[in-house]
Structures are given as structure tokens and as C-alpha cells.
Amino acid sequence: MAAPSLFSTVIAACLAAMTALPAGAEQTSEEAIAEYHAMFGDENPAELWQLRGEELWKTPRGSRQVSLETCDLGKGPGVIAGAYAELPRWFEDTGKVQDLESRLVTCMTTLQGLPESEVLAIKFGDGEQKSDLEAVTAYVVAASRGSRISLPLDHPAEKAAYALGERVFFYRAGPHDFACATCHSESGKRIRLQTLPQLTTPEGAQAAYTRWPAYRVSQGELRTMEWRLQDCFRQQRLPQLKYGSDVAIGLTLYLARNANGGEMVAPSIKR
Amino acid sequence: MNSSLRVAALLLCMGPLASALADPAPDLTATLKAAFEDKRQATLDRLDQDETQKLCTQYRDQPPAEVAQEIAKMNLATVKPPADGKYLGDWKAGEVVASTGTGLQWNDDPAKPNGGNCYACHELAPAEMAYGTLGPSLKHYGKLRGQDPAVLAYAWSMIYNSSSYAPCSNMPRFGHRGILTEQQIKDVMAYLFDAASPVNQ
Questions:
Q1: B-chain residues within 8 Å CB-CB of A177?
Q2: CB crowding A113-149: b at 16 or more within 10 Å, else e
Q3: A262: which DSSP letter?
Q4: Nearest-CA neighbor of B194 among B111, B123, B91, B42?
Q5: Could you tell me which chain A residue has the CA closest to the CA of B134?
Q6: Residue B6 DSSP SS3
Q7: Contact: B170, A182; criterion CB under 8 Å
Q8: CA nearest A233 in B: which residue?
């Protein structure tokens, strides 16, 4: 495994310090990211997660002591190039539509023989508590950079997952009556100074979906789509979305399909 | 034609559209409940929909005129005017409510007062640049409208239950759903109307 570049490590430390700055700096989200690029160029601390993920991918682990190098993400055993741009998709062996994260859980438990409780113990990292799932996700996603999102929805279960995702997107609930659509069905709108992606049109969905997962500057963490969705529901005042649930996968597929044809750039950098 | 007949006629005419928009699969609420879990104060019952939420979901927030009227009527009936008849509280306390975005999320402290988070969606005080644009600008709200009792009552209704005048609005129904207390709504009202409030500078 290549050593993480010293530069990435330094940036991660600087960013951690930046997040301690007083809030209220009046900047739009675009201005904040532009400032970041002016300071750090194209360096992205997500590289640290990708490198750790690559090592996890290639290291024999679990009761079977095998690596993930024969894990089938939909394009054949071990093929990661372009795989994320075609997920979520139907998998014959599990009889389910799966997103990348839930598919990785399948490979870790069935291929490697890791206990599911261990695989799911840390879904989202928090400082020193590292999530293996986030790291492997970052590694696999980076192998789709430049690939165009392609979800033909050939399988009836994929069509059904899309339909579920779409219905959930417009479902209003909770004390605040919020749906996903409340914030994400009009273009050019903001929450405070944070620009909101319009997720029901190809252009809007492409702009958003192709940039997730992302290194989140405000958190000093790499975050995946599973994290992004459950955090939206937290802000909607709804309960905890279950990781890998049919609703999480349906919504992801709804967004991915709306973004069809978009060119993947993730892992990116977000405020 | 009386109004219930009109609604019935409308629903008949809209048959194919209505059935395309209505829940096709079994119960979506049950599907959602299986995909979520309780987390602190954010419990699964929050996924249950009241009648307004059901209708707004069904029509994707664009109800036909007759349905919109029914939603408005149903929600207007929930609006409780201030018990002492005084609409305006303390604008300084209202500014705090307008600027606070926390409350009712599972990671929020339930012991703290909920925020109204007005600035997330509305421009208010001209000096505050960090405002959102999902809702209309409320800059100079009281200065432009004065304090006629009808004006006060309308603004109170919009904050207490936005669907009373704007059916399926994006705006939470702050009083009806127990997000803000009566006193907090009075304070937000003062923030909008008080001549000394930064909103009217």
C-alpha cells in the first residue's frame, strides 16, 4: 500500500482546526469550497480513506482468510472500475437490490466470513473510531471517477425500488411536515447560505449524486450516501433510517437513476 | 352545487389522475416503519401521517383547488389565537427563535426550547445576510403592512398553522404541531411587527 501523502495528512489536520473557527462567516457553500480549493488545490483528504480502503480490500480477513478481491459488485468478481456508477442494482445471489454499502456487507460476511455484528459495529466514522465500510466505499467509488452513471432498471425489482424511492421522496411526515421534496424539488434555493440541490431533474440530480461520497470539511470525515440520507432524515425530525434498508436503497436508486448519464467525480469535497 | 358534491364531482373527473397519484402499493407508512428505528425522542410514530400530510403527499403539494380549500378549512380550525388577545411579545426573544435551528431532531436536547429557524428559509432583518430562499422575503414585514387586527391575525395564523392560508406550504405548522409555544409565537410576531425590531430597520 502506498503511504498516504504527507500533504493529505497535513490538510486533514488543518481542516480539523478550521472547523473550530467561529460560525457565521457569511459565505455561500460554493464560496467556502472555492476558498478551500484556493488553499489546498486539488488535494482531497478522501485519499486517506481510499488508501485505507484499498488495504482492506486486498488483505485476507475473516474466518475464511480471503481478501475482497473476488467480491462481485455487479460487473464480475473483483471488478471495481465503473462498478459504483451502476449501483444500486439487482443481485441474483442475494435476491435483492443492493447499494454499494449493503453489497460490501454481503461480501464481508459471506465471502470473508466476518460476523455481521463486527462489520456493522462502526457504520460511520468518528475521529479515532474508523469505519471500515466507509474506507472500502471510498476506494471502490474512486474507481468510478470519469464513469457515467448507468442504471437501465432492467430488472422488475429495480423498477420497484425506484418507485419506492420516489414515493418516499414526496412523503411528508414528522412534527415539521418535511419530505425530501420540501428542500429538494426546486432549483436555485438555499437553506441559510447552503445551496440546495434540486434532485428531481437530471441536471440537479447529476450535480449532487456524482459528488457523493464526499470528504466533509465541517466534520473531518468521509461520508457516504448511506450517511447522507440518514442525516437528511435526522434534519427532517424523523427517526433513524436503518443502514442498508429497502428505503435507503430505494432512495439511493431513485437519485442515481435521476442522475443517469452524469459523470462520477466522487469522492469529492463538501463543506 | 354544495361543496361536498363539488368535491365528489371533481374526484370523479380526476379518477385516472387520482388513482395514479394515490398510494399504489400496500401501506407506505408500514414500509417506512420497518426501515426506521426509534432514536431518542424521534420515535416511529412520527412516520404516521395526519390528514393534511396524507393529502399533501398524495398531490405532491399541488392539491386541486377544491382539495386545497378543504385542507385550508381543516387547518384554519386548529388555529388558537393568543389567550390574552395580545399578538405581540418581545422582539428580542423572537430574534432568538428566528435564528435557532435546533429542536426535535434526535440529537437535540429535549430540555431546551425548540427553534423556529425562520432564517433557514426567509430574509428578515436586512442586516442579516445568511438567510435562505425557500420562503418569501419578510424584510420590513411590519413596516410595510402596519398592525391592523386583520393583518396581525393573518400573520398569527400563518405561523401557527401555515396550511390555514397556504395549503401544503413547505413551512412547518409551528403552533398546531407543538413546535413553538404560544409565547414563542408572540415573540416571533413582535420580531416581524415591532417598529424597533431589526426586521423593520
A1: 52-53, 56, 172-173, 177
A2: ebeeeebbeebbbeeeeebbbbbbbbbbbbbbbebbb
A3: P
A4: B91
A5: A189
A6: helix
A7: yes
A8: B105
B130 contacts in chain A (CB < 8 Å): 24, 26, 192-193
For B144, other C-beta atoms within 10 Å of its C-beta total 10
Active-site residue, A232 included: yes
Write down the pTM of the prediction.
Answer: 0.90
Facing A240 at nearest CB: one of B31, B52, B106? B106
Residue A36: pLDDT band (50, 70, 90) is confident
Cβ-in-10-Å burial (0-12, 13-18, 19+) of B20 comes to exposed
Chain B residues inside the 8 Å CB shell of A239: 36-39, 42-44, 46-47, 106
Residue A52 neighbours by CB distance under 10 Å: 21
Interatomic CA distance for residues A21 and A254, integer angstroms: 37
Confidence check: pLDDT of B20 > 60: no
The answer to whether the CB of A169 falls within 8 A of the CB of B61 is no
If we measure between CA atoms, which residue out of A100, A1, A83, A99 comes closest to residue A47?
Answer: A1
Rounded (10°) CA dihedral A207, A212, A217, A218: 90
Whether chain A has a CB inside 8 Å of the CB on B154: the answer is no
ipTM metric: 0.90
d(CA B72, CA A69): 59
